[in-house]
Design brief:
The protein is an alpha/beta fold and 127 residues long. It contains five helices and five strands; from the N terminus they run E-H-E-H-E-H-E-H-E-H. It has a single domain, classed as Response regulator (Rossmann fold), CATH 3.40.50.2300. Helices cover 41% and strands 21% of the residues.
Length: 127
Amino acid sequence: MLGDDELIRALVVDDDPDMRMLVAMSIDLSVRPVEVVAVSDGSDAIDKWRTEHPDVIVMDIRMPHVSGLDLAGEILAEEPSQAIVLFSAYVEAGVLDRAEGMGVCEVLEKHQLRDLPTVLEECVRAR
């Protein structure tokens, strides 16, 4: 568990470069220091996750090649305590139940971007 003033390491996964930048900027508004690494697809995300060991992952649900939900399942199968926030413009029916069932910390819609720093803090504390 992280102390109140320790650095949070966050991995952001989104195929849209503008959204990666917005998410990183939002995370930077956190009360505590945050280090952000951003990647554009699932295969890069797995590689970065294994080398960087982030405290929390924020990833888009809809991405080419592999969905964020499938990627979350793969990561959580390997490391069940990994904090993951799924983030999407539109959350389809059933996604919340599936995400909760696999151990995803939170599912946010992109219009809730302002809530992201608080959600990250809560997810990291819950680990």
